[in-house]
Automatic annotation (TrEMBL):
SUPFAM superfamilies for the chain: Translation initiation factor IF3, C-terminal domain (SSF55200), Translation initiation factor IF3, N-terminal domain (SSF54364)
NCBIfam families: infC (TIGR00168)
A UniProt-annotated Pfam family: IF3_C
Name this polypeptide is given: Translation initiation factor IF-3
Keyword Protein biosynthesis: yes
Subunit structure of this chain's protein: Monomer.
Localization per record: Cytoplasm
Underlying gene: infC
Domain Translation initiation factor 3 N-terminal positions: 15-84
UniProt biased composition (Acidic residues): 204-225
Amino acid sequence: MWCYRGGSISAEPRINDRIRVPEVRLVGPSGEQVGIVPLAKALELAQEYDLDLVEVAANARPPVCKLMDYGKFKYESAMKAREARKNQAHTVIKEMKLRPKIDPHDYDTKKGHVVRFLKQGDKVKITIMFRGREQSRPELGYRLLQRLAEDVQDLGFVESNPKQDGRNMIMVLGPHKKKTEAMAEAREAQAARKAERQGQPADAEAEDSVEEPVVEASAEEPAEA
């Protein structure tokens, strides 16, 4: 009698002589239904086709087994999982802090950061920080947020309208472009730059390119005296 004595349970399916049932429901190499056959017959067919007998539905009665090249199947599954992880995109919310009386140069600098974040497919939380008597002039912050939204409307949209949060006013901008699209475009652009330097076609470099790291730029204006 089998008993579990601790440790991890393997997620690997049973294959070939590890299968311990009198008969199986057999599926052929191309997905065709062979029917219910004795285990010995299924193993014989696996040897004849130079394939493995793999248990794909252990809880069925009888268990379902398929003839396949199990090594090739594992390799292809690992490659698919790797590609899925490579293209996986996590939602990131960047933050940019401004003062209601920000000077034009600082505004242009911070708008540039917002533009970069949106191009990368990230959301941006814009925070207007009020200090002292500025708290009695919320319209200053509202107008500044409206101005910023209009300046970047080609890249993003207002996902969360301006709202007061204590001494701050907050607005969230969402990108028009999905994160996965932005990542793909960044890889293509990097491959093109690399190919241009090396004098090679960009397509040959696209698959091996790695996305450049993103450094969040969030700076708080110094408080007024």
